[in-house]
Write a structure and sequence with these properties.
24% strand, alpha+beta
Length: 79
């Protein structure tokens, strides 16, 4: 699973990275995580509010820290 967190490094972006890493570790999901921090690249995904999350090339979230339940849904199950 290829995950990109779109954002300039703000607190919300860092919290989004942390929750994704926690949930993936808990569920045993193999993933690569990349931070996309260049505004031009972020807008290239059509995201106007950060943080944004892209999974396998598809935008799944934009604007604010996603809830733990939402992140769990991205990995296919809830704990």
């Amino acid at each position: 699973m290829d995950i990109k967190v779109l954002g300039t490094g703000c607190t919300n972006c860092k919290n989004t990275v942390a929750i994704i890493e926690q949930v993936a570790k808990t569920q045993g999901v193999a993933f690569t995580l990349t931070k996309v921090e260049e505004p031009r690249d972020i807008v290239g995904y059509g995201v106007m509010r950060t943080p944004g999350v892209v999974i396998d090339g598809r935008v799944v979230h934009a604007g604010g820290v996603p809830s733990r339940d939402k992140v769990e849904s991205w990995f296919g199950s809830s704990t």
